[in-house]
Amino acid sequence: MGQGDESSFDRLFATARALGEETRFGVYRRVCMSDGPVSVGSLAETFSLHPNAIRQHLSRLEDAGLVVSKPDRAGGGAGRPRRLYEPSPEQIDFAHPPRSTRALASVLAEAISTLPGDRELLVEFGRGWGRTWATKRKRGNGRTPRSRRGRAELLARELRDWGWRPVTHTDNGTVRLTADRCLFDDLGPAVNGRACALEEGLLAGIAETYLNGHAKAIRARDCRLEVEL
To answer: What pTM was estimated for this model as a whole?
Structure first.
């Protein structure tokens, strides 16, 4: 494994450690789901914690490259300006070289096992990350197709790049897309429930962002996605 590959695994391990503490996971989720940058004070109020405790969590998240901060220039007042936090604009890249799937699955298993076991939280985390990823991809891809078939084909192409196996067909004027391959088959039963919850959120978030209200129905459950346009 080359030096670049090793750094990818190191990044994954740093991310897993940063998100492995339940409160810190909640802080990161809150930052990601907020409409704009958030302050230490607002997070302290949300989690009923002392601001210093929140700062420690944010520091770990920032060290892992998951959030970024900037001074609040509009806040006014004397003294040092407070800092505002938002998700990092850098895409979390878990790229891996060919034939390293077994090693990557092993690292992912360890990473996922450190996350909170609350299924709803895992789904929402996956959905938020999927929306963020898809929004950046849409900006880079340019114009979104206007036809239902075109939107379905674009979504299918993106899902295929992830490793899912989407199938599209037209039935009485309705375009249907399904994808039901689990990306985490090799993780084993110990973490499969958590992995499938994350995958459910990812599928829903990506589909919701790409279809942007143009779908008749989006249904995601575990590792299966069903879309009607």
So the answer is: 0.57
